[in-house]
Write a structure and sequence with these properties.
Shape of chain B: globular
CATH architecture of the largest domain in chain A: Orthogonal Bundle
Distance between the termini of chain A: 59 Å
Helix content of chain B: over 70%
CATH class of the largest domain in chain A: Mainly Alpha
Strand content of chain B: under 5%
Oligomer: heterodimer
Structural class of chain A: alpha/beta
Number of strands of chain B: 2
Largest sheet of chain B: 2 strands, antiparallel
Order of helices and strands of chain B: HHHHEEHHHHHHHH
Number of helices of chain B: 12
Chain lengths: 628, 315
């Protein structure tokens, strides 16, 4: 049902369906219509123009009524195309199911044969078959069907292989069912949708192909005529009487186009990936739709980068996910700010929003401001953002295998990073790239520069990622879980590297992580995020020593203590709330052991608590309890 | 790399043998007696028997196959009775013309198709995307032979921009400009369908790639959006576009048969159709095997190109 609904929502597919239905109905009722005999020649009335005295569409070179011939020809073309599709689908599916179900040597031999058939340009095979069987409509039909069998066989085999190893097939086998019964009752029902898709995409093609063979004079023989042979016969009079060519040609076009529209609709409706709209590409910069005046920067922070009440949402169909729900953050030159939280807390989205790198669609920045050196970047023109990206504010991402381009060498990617902002010669940029690799302590930088990312180890790749971020001596580096994918020893090396770079170059670093150990090692200040908001913020030592928010305390209790065993490892019960439906009041209330009714009423605000600290809780932990 | 090419060339041998077996078996299915077909129904039994012996048709099937294969390997594809000429000479000459037509078409559809797909993906849901999507739908739905006829009508007959048909002018110099003016219409007509298919697949390949993390990295580096699309995204998308180009080359070669008929192009497709109608089996057999073998070789070239393009493929 939902399939039909999806199909009906697709207006183009619906148009295709209507046109196709019309053509099919016309073809079906052709014998009942009061038409002239399509084969009666009347050479006195040859080449009459359409809309004249000789019928709606005029007459052809033998004076036969074109309308009648068109309808009878359509009938024949449709019948032949559908028959060819059915034959190809049946035989191809049978071959594919046998190959996929039995596997092993059977599969091997069959698929080798299929590969050989597919090695031909398809029409050569069709021509060879027609050559052997002789010209004629039935032989053309056989040829077109035969040529398409490998296509079906290969598709169906793929699906069958995946089904043949499913539990329900094993269960059927164990229950003593024979192979034939398993194929018919268990495999076939699962394969049929694939057959339908394959047919819907090829049937137009087969109509075209049989028409093509007829056009060449190898299909239907006179006086019988399908659309192809009508066109073929009209060709000699193309210049003097084009209407005899246009009529059948336009009909083929209409039929094939309608089938293609319908086929696309069927495929889209059955392909779940397209249903969710996942196949949309992110735009160069995140969409901005602010409906309120952005807040002013606070000069007393002396920040190089400051986020003020930043709001980023994901709009997926009718749902709105508030990934970032009003975040205030700032980082000073030479300072390292840690952002910590569980997956889905909005920390990465916050970081990506700064330079408009949140994928959009579906991401939308709906409010707030990001001040870099006092300039608001939210809603800034693309070119402004581009000039800052990688130049003044650089990113290091989590998984360097996915984030480096797999088909360019490390050197090419570094050189590009340099040249995106500094127009230097390739040689100069290359020297600079080698220096960069050395600065992140990559041994043999001169040779490694010509490696592809897949030729390097994980730690090396992340060093390349860091080198790329350093390429233009940025003021701010935003590191989005740069060590999460690495093992512990490499992680320690990368962290100390970042720490050194920060001290040497006076970099401001925003470091996103879910790991308190990393925060303790690297960060001056830390902000704890939960459900898209900051719940606690302050100097690292102070927060680690005495967390004020219950969530921070619980999060820290999750970290195992080395050589300890003095305290119990405690997971936080429950899951973070889904951000499209946030509860009233404190978002953590449902998982908090000391939540009261007061927590669930009204807005809980971030209130200052002591020097440089703030907490979003109406009943903060007391220092002694948290220290344990 | 040389080892990889050699390996791929060796892997072609069973495919080529398979092709020869398939063609041979299809031709062996011919109902009736080829000698009778050649000599006509008024031939005397003695003559039929003699021709059968001359053609080697009195021997068993397997033996006949190996004789045929052995002859082909020595460059002897037999003699066409309808043209009274060595099959290989005729096929090579005709294939040359087909190659000019199909090769030009292939270049057109590859360049235009990929470009249209990239633009379409980069401007997803925009006006350009909608226009291209519609044009593509029209392109893949129109029969190339009908399109060719309409092009003749419009551009050759009415506008007189190009000659109506043929490969060379009947009188006058056979130079490049003459060839190009004769080539333009058929090559364009032939390219339309493949352009549509390639544009469609390039668009989805691009959309797939543009969601990858390394595109975000390129943007985070401050690379200009133009480079992000044409350098980063397209390069990665080419990995899945190249095999499609290989497949489409087969379709272009196939479609050439129709276009050669419409435009009276002296190619191998027209030769095959004529040979079928005249029941000149040896010519059909030789032509099909020759063209299929060339296509297999072309696909190896595509594989090698793929290996050059993607350093992750072990070569």
């Amino acid at each position: 049902m939902s399939f039909l609904r999806l199909l009906s929502r697709n207006r183009l597919a619906l148009a295709g369906l209507v046109v196709m239905a019309l053509v099919v109905v016309l073809a079906l009722i052709t014998p009942l219509l009061p038409l002239a005999d399509p084969d009666v020649t009347n050479t006195a009335d040859r080449f009459k123009r359409p809309l004249g005295d000789a019928g709606l569409l005029g007459t052809d070179h033998l004076g036969r009524d074109l309308l009648s011939r068109l309808l009878w020809g359509t009938r024949l073309s449709l019948a032949v195309g559908v028959a060819a599709a059915l034959i190809a689908a049946t035989i191809g599916a049978a071959i594919g199911i046998v190959a996929g179900f039995y596997g092993g040597r059977t599969d091997n031999i069959i698929m080798r044969g299929v590969d050989m058939l597919m090695a031909f340009p398809y029409i050569l095979l069709a021509l060879a078959i027609v050559a052997a069987l002789g010209p004629g409509l039935l032989n053309a039909l056989i040829a077109v069907a035969a040529v398409n069998i490998p296509f079906f066989a290969r598709n169906i085999r793929g699906v069958t292989v995946s089904i043949a190893h499913k539990e329900f097939v094993d269960a059927a086998r164990l229950s003593g069912m024979g192979d034939v019964r398993i194929i018919v009752t268990e495999v076939l029902p699962n394969v049929i949708p694939v057959i339908v898709i394959a047919m819907s995409t090829t049937i137009g093609w087969m109509i075209l192909e049989t028409a093509g063979l007829s056009f060449l004079g190898l299909g239907s023989q006179p006086p019988q005529a399908d659309l192809g042979s009508m066109l073929g016969e009209a060709r000699s009079a193309l210049i003097t009487n084009p209407h005899t060519s246009v009529v059948p040609g336009a009909m083929i076009l209409v039929i094939v186009m309608a089938i293609n529209l319908l086929g696309d609709g069927v495929r889209d409706a059955l392909d779940p990936r397209l249903k969710s709209g996942a196949l949309s590409r992110p735009m160069p910069a995140t969409l901005v739709r602010r409906d309120s005046v952005p807040p002013q920067p606070r000069t007393e922070d002396e920040a190089i980068l400051a986020l003020r009440d930043l709001k980023t949402e994901f709009h997926v169909k009718n749902r709105v996910y508030k990934a970032v729900g009003g975040v205030d953050l700032h980082v000073r030159p030479g300072e390292c700010l840690g952002i910590i939280g569980e997956s889905g807390s909005g920390k990465s989205v916050t970081a990506l929003s700064v330079m408009g790198l949140v994928a959009s669609p579906p991401g939308v920045i709906t409010g707030g401001a990001v001040y870099f050196e006092g300039q608001d970047l939210i809603g800034a023109p693309y070119e402004t953002l581009r000039r800052l990206r990688g130049n003044r504010v650089a990113y290091i991402f989590q998984d360097p295998l996915a984030t480096l381009h797999p088909l360019y060498t490390v050197g090419e990617q570094l050189i590009e990073a340099v040249r995106a902002h500094h127009p230097t010669s390739r040689d100069e940029a290359r020297t600079h790239a080698i220096d960069l690799l050395k600065s992140v302590r990559i041994p043999n930088a001169e040779t490694r520069i010509d490696s592809y990312p897949h030729e390097l180890s994980g730690g090396m790749r992340q060093r390349v990622g860091i080198a790329m971020a350093l390429a233009n001596d940025p003021e701010v580096i935003i590191a989005d879980e740069p060590t999460t994918a690495l093992d512990v020893t490499v992680q320690a090396q990368i962290l100390s590297l970042l720490d050194d770079l920060r001290r040497e170059r006076g970099l401001a670093i925003v470091f996103i992580t879910h790991d308190f150990g990393v925060v303790a090692q690297l960060c001056d200040r830390v902000a704890v995020m939960y459900a898209g908001r900051i719940v606690e913020e302050g100097p690292t030592a102070a927060i680690l020593g005495a967390p004020a928010h219950p969530y921070t305390a619980r999060l820290m209790a999750c970290v195992p203590e080395l050589g300890g065993g003095r305290r119990e490892l405690a997971a936080i019960p429950g899951l973070p709330p889904v951000v499209d439906n946030l509860p009233q009041g404190c978002a953590f209330a449902d998982r908090c052991h000391k939540a009261t009714d007061a927590c669930r009423e009204g807005e809980v605000t971030l209130v200052p608590k002591g020097p440089d600290r703030a907490v979003r809780c109406i009943d903060p932990e007391i220092a002694t309890e948290a220290a344990q | 790399m040389a080892g990889y090419i050699l390996k791929r060339l060796f892997s072609a041998i069973p495919v080529l043998l398979g092709i020869s077996i398939i063609v041979f078996l299809i031709m062996a299915m011919i109902p009736g007696d080829p000698a009778t077909a050649i000599l006509g129904s008024y031939a005397t039994p003695e003559n039929v028997e003699k021709l059968n012996r001359d053609l080697g048709l009195d021997k068993p099937l397997v033996q006949r196959y190996f004789i045929w294969l052995g002859n082909m390997l020595q460059g002897d594809f037999g003699r066409s009775f309808s043209l009274n000429r060595a099959v290989l000479d005729e096929v090579m000459e005709r294939f040359n013309a087909t190659l000019i037509l199909a090769g030009t078409s292939f270049v057109i559809c590859s360049v235009l198709g990929v470009a249209a797909g990239v633009v379409s993906a980069a401007r997803q849901y925009g006006l350009a995307d909608k226009a291209i999507t519609f044009a593509v739908l029209l392109g893949i739905s129109i029969p190339s032979f009908f399109l060719g006829m309409m092009m003749i009508l419009i551009f050759a007959v009415n506008l007189r921009w190009f000659p109506v048909s043929g490969m060379w002018p009947i009188y006058g110099a056979r130079d490049l400009s003459a060839l190009l003016s004769h080539l333009t219409l058929p090559a364009s007509a032939l390219a339309v369908v493949a352009t549509g298919v390639i544009a469609r697949l390039s668009r989805s390949a691009m959309l797939e790639v543009m969601r990858q993390d390394f595109i975000r990295t390129a943007r985070a580096k401050g690379v200009h959006e133009r480079s992000v699309i044409w350098r980063h995204a397209l390069r990665a998308a080419m990995v899945s576009i190249i095999p499609v180009l290989g497949i489409q080359a087969g379709f272009v070669l196939s479609g050439a048969v129709y276009i050669e008929m419409v435009f009276q192009w002296p190619g191998v497709g027209r030769m095959l159709v004529d040979a079928i109608l005249k029941r000149d089996i040896l010519l059909v057999q030789g032509g099909v095997v020759f063209v299929a073998a060339c296509y297999v070789m072309f696909n190896i070239a595509v594989d090698v190109a793929q290996g050059l393009l993607d350093p992750r493929i072990k070569t």
